[in-house]
Amino acid sequence: xxxxxxxxxxxxxxxxxxxxxxxxxxxxxxxxxxxxxxxxxxxxxxxxxxxxxxxxxxxxxxxxxxxxxxxxxxxxxxxxxxxxxxxxxxxxxxxxxxxxxxxxxxxxxxxxxxxxxxxxxxxxxxxxxxxxxxxxxxxxxxxxxxxxxxxxxxxxxxxxxxxxxxxxxxxxxxxxxxxxxxxxxxxxxxxxxxxxxxxxxxxxxxxxxxxxxxxxxxxxxxxxxxxxxxxxxxxxxxxxxxxxxxxxxxxxxxxxxxxxxxxxxxxxxxxxxxxxxxxxxxx
Length: 283
Fold this sequence. Notes:
Blueprint: H1 3-13, E1 26-30, H2 37-49, E2 54-59, H3 64-70, E3 76-79, H4 83-92, E4 97-100, H5 108-121, E5 125-128, H6 131-134, E6 149-152, H7 156-163, H8 167-172, H9 174-185, E7 188-191, E8 197-199, E9 204-206, H10 219-233, H11 238-260, H12 267-281
Parallel strand pairs: 1-2, 1-4, 2-3, 4-5, 5-6, 6-7
Antiparallel strand pairs: 7-8, 8-9
Helix pairs in contact: 2-10, 2-12, 10-11, 10-12, 11-12
């Protein structure tokens, strides 16, 4: 990113003296399961360290205790069973962005129906990751008809399954494929990996921060949380917010690698260092 762009985004993160938590968004994280409660917890941590005013982790009752035990005390919890309960919560609690997918492990057909209902009901930014993306494997054209402002964050393997192709085919012309996918489906696509590509179909950004040290479980969950925070704080520029989140995520990973080494970085390190990275840049 250019220095001027970075400076402009950093200025948007500065806070007025009389501001309060609702000025910085309320993120809802619908994620996790009995075997993967940490995925949602990492996503919440990424959102909190990126400046979100409030973060709620939506969970099923059967793993509430696990999720609570590994989450920050600042994270709130909402126990749900139906999509209607989620929708009521979104409306009542002034939810401004949603992450769906990290660590969600349920009956796949039930899960897909649940996710599709949510993204057709809301008109706020929704970040689809992991299982949230998998629900549209081979039927990605259905993404173009949803109501939500969609941001999908696949890695190469997930993207290949989504498009019903193979990784080698995508690697032949990654940028063009990502741009076409984003344009055809009226969404923002974040193809994660070395030189992560972010595209809205009209605008494209290729990231130059990051390190192989970030190839670790949960790193993408942290990024989803960061995106969910920045789209609220930075304002109407959703593409710019996503681009900035990817940039900061990679830079935070670089900083952690300097003192933990290429093999010692874990996802929570990246999340915990986001605040230091932003401070280093001027906030």
